[in-house]
Amino acid sequence: MKTSKIIQVEVNFRHDLIIIKGSPFTYNYFSNLTQAFESVKESLLINGWDLDGFNYTAIYRSLKDRGSYVKVFKSKGAAFFKVSISSKTLNPKLSTLEITKNPY
After folding, report:
1. Other CB atoms within 10 Å distance of the CB of residue 25
2. Nearest-CA neighbor of 76 among 19, 10, 24, 26?
3. Nearest to residue 13, comparing CAs of 32, 28, 26, 31?
4. How many whole angstroms separate alpha carbon 100 and alpha carbon 5?
5. Chain centroid offset of residue 101 CA
């Protein structure tokens, strides 16, 4: 079976810090990082959020080093929501779970 990677984008609203409640967790899946980045970037721009520190290179390096990228979006000192981007493996290779052969 062939293994492949997908990109998961999670948007998590901070209900405890804001009066206006957003929706619960939102998960989106993309086949590559470019599509994920462009989708999030366009959504942020359409809704008027600042893109400081949110760029393709930062996300790529963070995924390579740590396996995930997290950015908290703030307005006037209050954190409104957090965007988490991570890489997930589909069809991982099966292991033997460290079970040895039966000696009999």
Report:
1. 9
2. 19
3. 26
4. 30
5. 40
User: pLDDT, tens digit, for every residue of 53-72?
Assistant: 899 999 999 999 999 999 99
Q: d(Cα 51, Cα 29) in Å, to the nearest integer? A: 21
- pTM here is 0.78
CB 90 within 8 A of CB 6: yes
Q: Give the list of residues 6+ apart from residue 59 with CB closer than 8 angstroms, or none.
A: 33, 37, 69, 85
Per-domain boundaries in the chain: 4-90
Which pLDDT tens digit goes with each residue over 7-57?
999 998 876 655 666 567 889 999 999 999 999 999 999 999 988 889 999
Burial of 87 (0-12, 13-18, 19+ CB in 10 A): middle
